[in-house]
Request: fold
Amino acid sequence: MSEQYGVDPQFLDALLERETARFERTHQRSKKLHERTEGSMPRGVPLHWMANWPTPHPVYLSGAEGAYLTDVDGKSYVDFCLGDTGAMFGHANPLVAEAVSRQVHAGTTTMLPTEDAAAVGEELSRRFGLPYWQLATSATDANRFAIRIARIATGRDKVLVFNGKYHGSVDETQVALQDGRMVPQPGVAPNAVDTDRTTRLVEFNDVDALEQALSERDVACVLAEPAMTNVGVVPAEPGYHDALREITRRTGTLLIIDETHTISTGPGGYTRAHGLQPDMFVLGKSIAGGIPAAVYGMTAEVAETFERYTAKDGHRISHAGFGGTLAGNALTLAALRTTLEEVMTEEAYARMSALAERFERGVTEVIGKHGLPWHSTRLGARVEYLFSARAPRDGGEAKRFRVPRLEAAIHLHLLNRGVLLTPFHNMALMCPATTESDVDRHTAAFAECVAELVS
Ligand code: PMP
Reply:
């Protein structure tokens, strides 16, 4: 028995071996499709990490609807991954599908706005509290653009991020702490970016480290998730957000809050639920109901800089460094408007959060029954379990609490029983179509898996 995480490593090995064999037996068509795709795509997938699930090869899907997936081998799954938040409002949401198909027949992309732009801007302002908004195609892009504005506004180069963060493939953020020193993110080529020049990295919840890192007043912005969600969940300690805001204001550093995952907290995100006051706000993935889109909001002051910087210069061609040809197009706007006005409702969130509570209760009961040193955390509609008795205080601690083989074993076991968690951590997300019996299905499969691992 491992004292550290409460599971017998021998049982873990046996379970992994057996579940891998079971997966292989029952996913022959996926295997064949993977072999075929390997002929034209590196690693046999359109995006490399699709091949990183804990399965011997990816599951190839034939459909997705509501909270469910079906694969080419005829299996179906309750989907708690929901495209790692991209499908947080359900697959093939009928309202989004209708808006999108209407717009597909009325033109998708033109280089000009539609009436939906006004409605989307107004609703974003009302919902999230910042008065001005721009669109991007992904949260990664939105973060890059927010950092660019912060640099223009402050005349400073550096961005401060937190150890264990993920904000997309933004070059400046590809760093990690090792023995207290910032190093290039293991596994990510530095891409010729000198992160010593562009980046400061500290642990989340460490007010002193933050104070020190911003004291030279050479940091343009802090880019932060309000609770970290990409190394397990690291909640903000009481008072941390007040300190973060006070120190950033005092040192003339802009504060960018990235709500791409924490939008699970409620219809106005963590920001509205906790009264945060960011200078900029980023949200991608789910915001257009699964159509690629991201938004970034800004204060009137930041918007003034943005307007000045991007202003028309006679009839010259201007490349300001923001955008993407397809950003903010008619299709995106139609999907965004419908998602905001009709899908991301108070009622939908109330339902999703209640289901997440039920999910968390189930997990906690199983953990308690076996006296395991594990815990779970909930952010509205999102639940995460981790192999430590309490929530990690920062990204460094969260990384130490992870047990990748155990994680893989649980994921495989659940997947073989028709339950899908988000890979690379133990995250489950509820969508408006998730039901109580879906949640109970997870609880039963999780209970079965844990019983095997400890007995
Ligand atoms: N911000 C956060 C907090 C994220 O978790 C992610 C992706 N997991 C991103 C930004 C990047 O999103 P995308 O890959 O859609 O650009």
Residues 2-79+346-454 form a domain with the Aspartate Aminotransferase, domain 1 fold (CATH 3.90.1150.10). Residues 65 and 175 are 37 Å apart (CA to CA). The radius of gyration is 22 Å. The longest strand covers residues 219-224.
